[in-house]
Write a structure and sequence with these properties.
about 180 residues, globular
């Protein structure tokens, strides 16, 4: 096991997909594997319609219990650590809230932001199409159907270990 990267701005990777595609379920399998690698992992979720903070059963509540060190939920006009000053980009949130003591921030959403992305898709929801099919930063597809992007690594919905290894190698530069 290699130690995490030197402290500074953390590496960032986003998990994207349509509503009910399985993003959070996949993340809750992925995050503990990253944390068990010795990484200090943060979680940043884009909440389109606003949110309540840390309500039992909600995504941020569940992610905190999965092993992340820090949880930030952002979307609409709110960012928790509560800040009603408006929507922010991923980089603005990381800089503003001093996430510099983390090795990796796992983002759920923000599909239009420029950062490495892993798309989670289910055939029943997507009809076999990806929302980030043309995104140059798409680094992996997690789906229950063959990926329409043969140039991008493909993983099955239960292969969180494979995706964790890809993140360690491609995002964090581990060998």
């Amino acid at each position: 096991m290699k130690a995490g990267p030197s402290r500074g701005a953390p590496a960032v990777v986003s998990v994207v997909g349509r509503h009910n595609s399985g993003k959070t379920t996949f993340l809750l399998a992925l995050i503990p594997l990253l944390a068990q690698s010795g990484l200090r992992v943060g979680y940043l979720k884009h909440a389109h319609r606003g949110f309540d903070i840390d309500v039992p059963g909600k995504d941020s509540y569940r992610a905190r219990r999965a092993g992340v060190v820090q949880t930030i939920v952002t979307g609409g006009t709110q960012t928790a650590v509560i800040d009603d000053s408006g929507e922010r980009t991923v980089r603005e949130v990381i800089e503003r809230y001093a996430l510099k003591d983390l090795d990796l921030v796992v983002v759920e959403g923000f599909k239009r932001e420029p950062m490495p992305k892993i798309e989670v898709a289910r055939l029943q929801i997507s009809g076999g199409e990806l929302i980030c099919a043309d995104d140059r930063e798409l680094m992996a597809v997690v789906s229950d159907f063959p990926s329409p992007r043969p140039d991008v690594p493909h993983f099955g919905p239960h292969d969180a270990p494979g995706v964790a290894e890809l993140i360690r190698r491609r995002v964090l530069g581990w060998s």
